[in-house]
Amino acid sequence: MKGDVNMQNIPAETLETCARAGSVRSIRYGDKYVLLYTPSAKAEHILYLIHGGGGTQHSFFRPAFLNMVDHMTESGMLEPLYIVAPCFYAPGVTDKRPGTSGVAVKQFCSELREQIIPQVERHIGMTFERESRAIGGFSMGGVTTWYAFMQALDLFYWFVPLSGDCWALGETGGGLAPDETAECLAQAAIAQGLPDFRIHAVTGARDIAFPNLDPQIRAMEKHEDVFGKTLRYDVLEDGVHDYETIFRYLYNVLPELFKR
Ligand code: FER
């Protein structure tokens, strides 16, 4: 279903320091680490948020974003939420080309399953049910989110791919082979037992990933049986391929998560 494209702008004061701020710490696993944002009040939900190509676990966690989440939580528009920012690159990887990133993100799901989720949730002291777990990401993080949909429907209920298509059939496969990609996603959901789930995909009409994501979503919409009631898609008219635009999507999308 195509959603409301009239996304709210982030109020300017929301990007400034908040009196009630959450905290960020790093959690090690093997020779890597994730950043964990813990809100100022008790949280029952968790979002795994994946950076874009060339990024790191620090890409999302800049002051503007964390302040925004603090303010959203303080005002009550957002229920308190843990946010985990991992890095899909191996330590020391300097080749950030899409081809290399594509291989990294395909493999990343097993790292999430076997190391990151257990380690983070042990640290927090609770194991979240899939209905309380979301995964989302920007660009290559969006590609990662589609892989999570194909490989880890048992772990996540909520999927938020932002300006990134599914690369199951190859680099930018959502644009090059939209029907085959949609078929692949539908079959992956069926093969995993077709549990209930929600996808909220967002991109911008001026985003470089639009020509890849848009045809894929159109093709997915034809799979009524799998995606008829589970897929929401928004296109922001002036959205471009940068983190500021993505923060705006998240300002609008995060309050909708975990509401069934
Ligand atoms: C896309 C998905 C990912 C896309 C670009 C990327 C242009 C990533 C690019 C990069 O990491 O450089 O649909 O469209």
Describe this structure in words.
Helices cover 37% and strands 19% of the residues. By secondary structure, it is of the alpha/beta class. The chain has a single domain, classed as 3-Layer(aba) Sandwich (Rossmann fold). Strand 3, helix 1 and strand 4 form a beta-alpha-beta unit. Helix 2 crosses helix 3 and helix 5 crosses helix 6. It is globular and about 50 Å long. Bound molecules: 3-(4-hydroxy-3-methoxyphenyl)-2-propenoic acid (FER). 3-(4-hydroxy-3-methoxyphenyl)-2-propenoic acid binds next to helix 2, helix 3 and helix 6.
Notable characteristics:
260 residues, alpha/beta, single chain, Rossmann fold, 37% helix, binds 3-(4-hydroxy-3-methoxyphenyl)-2-propenoic acid
Order of helices and strands: EEEHEHEHEHHEHHEH
**Which ligands occur here?**
3-(4-hydroxy-3-methoxyphenyl)-2-propenoic acid
What is the CA-based Rg, rounded?
A: 17 Å
The biggest beta sheet reads: 8 strands, mixed
Structural class assignment? alpha/beta
What is the number of helices? Answer: 8
